[in-house]
Amino acid sequence: MGAEPATGRGGLDGDPLVGLEIEDCTTEQVVERARALVTPGRRRILGLTGSPGAGKSTVAEAVVQALGPTTAVLVPMDGFHLADVVLHALGRRDRKGAHDTFDDAGYAALLERLQAATPGETVYAPTFRRDLEEPIGSAIPVPPDVPLVVTEGNYLLLDRDAWPRARAVVDRVWFLAPEEGVRQDRLIRRHEAFGRAPDAARAWALGTDQRNADLIASTARRADAVLRVR
């Protein structure tokens, strides 16, 4: 892996990624870094974070698939999205994806259970169905003897509310930082793939999603490593 200075989002003044060292790597190299964390008989948690469209799910799924189901399980933060009915009641549905549209305390409590790895206890984690835009509870079994839990989500490094509790039990957090144009294009395509019209997809990606992305980028300095996965 090589390293390069961050150019952030186009090198704009005040860009929180400017000046950070970004490690240039392949997915295979990320897998090998994750493999090095595996210690039989000891539970470890690896966190992947980054702005929307950074490739967190893709990289996390590649790591888990490469390591195999007896070694690694993926537990995404997205399973802790508040349900739409709750977001409507709170007046936050138009900001879905912001840090206060998740059950952050529930996510932290789950990671604490996973870190404890009580012998003989399978923990069931929620997932998120993008086709429904809703979380589904108890969908991911995590057996007690699986040594590595990979979790991915936007706010692992946020220093407010219950997010620091989650960070406290994660052994390593890697921030994924693709080039900004690449990230935005991915995000727009993803919104289109799940039913948004092109204009609406672009408006959401460059509006609500971008505001979240700016906040998330400000947390990158707290990561154990900042990676640009090619």
Automatic annotation (TrEMBL):
Coiled coil residues, start to end: none
Name of this protein: Nucleoside/nucleotide kinase family protein
InterPro entries documented for this protein: P-loop_NTPase (IPR027417), PRK/URK (IPR006083)
UniProt keyword Nucleotide-binding, yes or no: no
This protein's UniProt keywords: Kinase, Transferase
Keyword Amino-acid biosynthesis: no
GO MF, one annotated term: kinase activity
Gene3D superfamilies in alphabetical order: P-loop containing nucleotide triphosphate hydrolases
Annotated gene: frcK
Organism: Cellulomonas aerilata
Ranges where the Phosphoribulokinase/uridine kinase domain occurs: 45-225
Superkingdom of origin: Bacteria
